[in-house]
Write a structure and sequence with these properties.
Elements: E1 5-9, H1 18-31, E2 36-40, H2 46-56, E3 61-66, H3 68-80, E4 88-93, H4 99-104, H5 110-118, E5 123-135, E6 138-144, E7 147-151, H6 152-164, H7 169-183, E8 187-193, E9 196-208, E10 230-236, H8 240-252, E11 261-266, E12 268-273, E13 278-281, E14 284-303
Parallel strand pairs: 1-2, 1-3, 3-4
Antiparallel strand pairs: 5-6, 5-14, 7-9, 7-13, 8-9, 8-12, 9-10, 10-11, 12-14, 13-14
Helix pairs in contact: 2-3, 6-7
């Protein structure tokens, strides 16, 4: 490949399994003849600093070894370091969910993913999302790669992160989902989609760049991460039993015919809730609404 390459490894990704996988991945990349340096993240947020410093040090490719949260940190670091335009990203997914790589067609098995890093088949230029929200009382901004969500969806992330992460991919998500199902109340919100105001009671609002979310759900079956739009999925005031019955449809992508489900394409979405409403992006809890989401078209180059 010949490009100056930095590999950023999150050992905690995949419920801590990445720390065991990394020596094999490193050996595989060396066997394939890739010339690279690597650094290991020490704490949440460290990936942002490492990616920013990779920009400062003239790296042309940054490889994410971890989950969607690791990739999210790297992209935020590239952005804050002014490197999005001239640094490409490659992905070896070792996280609990493999949602984003499914949309891009990057292999889930690390050996095949390593081959794509060493000799990519091509590159995709994809959009990024910008989330503006409240964190500890202060307006905060964060980029996201795959999807962001508010309400029921973000509360599942809270429960999964705080209580069940160690269980791994699907079990942690399902446990988080069931816990949230018992406690969550739908919210009255003002929703502004590309300047169109509307008031409604919602269960969840999802802003999708990719097709997949939540460890294999298919909330936006026709989403294209490079089309300059979010696929905005709104689940209105659905009852708990109906939600439980409808969930398998979201895994199959057949939920869009449900009368309480709407999907619109938009470049900017604002959510103003009557009471507190959690916000997540790429499976990480960010803060609370009111929140605004805007698309950053053709912002990131991904080697595939």
């Amino acid at each position: 490949m010949g490009k100056k390459t930095k590999v950023i490894v999150n050992p905690a990704a995949g419920a801590g399994k990445t720390v065991k996988k990394w020596p094999h991945i490193k050996q595989e990349l060396e066997t394939l003849g890739l010339d690279f340096d690597f650094e290991v993240t020490q704490a949440p947020g460290h990936g942002i600093d490492l990616a920013r410093s990779a920009v400062d040090n003239g790296y042309e490719v940054v490889v994410s070894v971890g989950g969607d949260g690791t990739l999210n940190e790297i992209v935020n670091g590239l952005y804050s370091g002014g490197g999005l335009e001239h640094v490409a990203v490659a992905i070896i997914n070792t996280g609990t969910g493999a949602d984003y790589i499914r949309t891009l067609g990057i292999p889930r098995q690390y050996r095949q993913a390593c081959q794509r890093v060493a000799s990519p088949q091509g590159k995709k230029v994809v959009d990024l999302g910008i989330a503006e929200y409240i964190n500890k009382g202060k307006p905060t901004k964060r980029l996201f790669v795959n999807f962001a969500g508010l309400g029921f969806d973000a509360e599942i992330v809270r429960a999964t992160t705080e209580k069940f992460k160690a269980l791994g991919d699907m079990p942690s998500y399902l446990m988080g989902l069931l816990t949230t199902l018992f406690t969550y109340e739908n919210r009255d919100v003002t929703l502004v989609i590309d300047g169109q105001f509307g008031s409604r009671k919602v269960c969840t609002v999802l802003l999708n760049n990719g097709k997949y979310a939540g460890g294999g759900m298919l909330p936006a079956p026709s989403a294209d991460p490079g089309d300059g739009f979010f696929d905005v999925l709104v689940i209105d005031d659905m009852t708990k039993p109906d939600l439980l019955i409808s969930l398998p449809r979201i895994y199959r992508g057949t939920h869009l015919t449900h009368p309480k489900v709407t999907l619109t394409r938009a470049r900017a979405v604002e959510v103003r809730p009557s009471v507190g409403m959690a916000v997540q992006a790429d499976g990480e809890l960010l803060g609370e609404a009111p929140a605004r989401f805007t698309i950053m078209p053709a912002a990131l180059t991904v080697l595939v």
